[in-house]
Structures are given as C-alpha cells and as structure tokens.
C-alpha cells in the first residue's frame, strides 16, 4: 500500500504540473473520491505542491495563481477548511493553564536547534485535556460537527526564528486544537507571529494572532496554512491536539 500511495502522489503531482486550474480542481476531487487511501494521497500531494508553489509562504502570481486557488479549493472540498478563534475556554481556567505551563516546561527537550520548532509528547495534564468531554464538545461546536480524538497531543516550543512553512496537516490532525500557553512578544514591539490560513473563496488569507490562554480550532487537513516566523526575542509555547470527524 505504501508503494501504491507513493505512485498516486507522483501521479497527482504530475497532473498539478500539467493541468489548467479549472480542470485541476475537479480532477483532484474525482481522483480522491474512489477511496480513502486515494483521498489521503491527494492531500499529501497537495501539501507537497503548495510548498513548491509558495516556498516563501507567499502565494504565486501569474499563471500559477490559478493552480494555487485550485489546490486551496480542492483541499476544502475533500476535507473542509476553516479556522475558528475560541478565545479563553471557560473550563480551562487559571489553575489548568498553570498546570499545562508547568508540564510543558518540565517536558521541554534538553536540546533544541536554534530557529526551529521542537515538540514534546503530552504528560498527564495535556493528555487529560485532550480526551476531555469539555474540549471535544467545544472544538466540535467551533467546527460545526461532532468529532472524536485521534489521541495525538503534543507541546510545541517555538524560539525566535522558528517558522512553520505553508502546508496541510498530517492525517492525525485533520482538526487541530491549538492553545497558546506562553508568548513572549518580539523585541521590536510588533504583534509577532500570526497563523495564516488560506480559505476557499477568499482571495486574501486570514491572519490571526493569539495571546496566552487563547485557543483556536483549525481544520488542518483541509486548510492550507502557515505560521509566520517568530521575530528577534519572540518565543511561544502552544499545544497541538488532534481530532477527526465522527461519522457514526
């Protein structure tokens, strides 16, 4: 199956390089509709293609602009796109946030590469939040349908210079919940790094910033997105918790 999936990804990427924008969107959706394995392969191929089209996170102009918007639309049709700020969660008060911050600091990797995001697996505090009924219901309400956990949850550590480039999230993060635990703003006094989400039908991307204690629900498998580079002096710790649509 791995070899077959790789061949499908290659086929999709070849089509992306050859197709006009209008034909491309419909072809991708038809190709993906045959089964879930092809659907996943199309999403993986789109993730590769958008990184090539936007190596500096800026969507292409000229002839490639139509291809870009076709990929944005196809990802939305296959998985649904959207980003919903959730603000402060009523069930995650100061005591829970303090536990999460303490656990994140305790589990922080001993070695990190300068300018690169690092991750650590969940401890008891984050694992408990990730499978809680309150969080499941809150994220489900934010995205507009019932969800179930994928049991994937990590802490993310972002030093100055770190940068999450344009991408689609992996299948275990079809829907991802981010909670910002700490954020030291940049030395230049600007607002700092933003989440940039490209949504179908919108010519301009959404740009969102979050303060410590604030959360966001992102349909990460169907939303082409990035996190802008952190500036000098800027640091951030946040969570990533995975969910998927509940069909039963």
List the helices and strands and how they pair.
Layout: H1 2-18, H2 21-32, H3 36-53, H4 63-79, E1 83-88, H5 94-107, E2 118-121, H6 124-130, H7 133-143, E3 147-158, E4 164-167, E5 175-184, E6 195-198, E7 206-208, E8 214-218, E9 224-227, E10 235-245
Antiparallel strand pairs: 1-8, 2-3, 3-10, 4-9, 5-8, 5-10, 6-7, 6-9
Helix pairs in contact: 1-3, 2-3, 2-4, 3-4
Approximate shape = globular
Number of helical regions = 7
- Mean pLDDT metric: 92
Helix and strand run: HHHHEHEHHEEEEEEEE
Q: Characterize the biggest β-sheet.
A: 6 strands, antiparallel
Walkthrough of the structure:
With 248 residues, this protein is an alpha+beta fold. The chain has seven helices and ten strands. The chain has helices spanning 2-18, 21-32, 36-53, 63-79, 94-107, 124-130, 133-143; strands at residues 83-88, 118-121, 147-158, 164-167, 175-184, 195-198, 206-208, 214-218, 224-227, 235-245. The protein has a six-stranded antiparallel β-sheet with strand order 1-8-5-10-3-2. β6 and β7 form a beta hairpin. α3 runs antiparallel to α4. The protein is globular and about 55 Å long. It starts with a helix and ends with a strand.
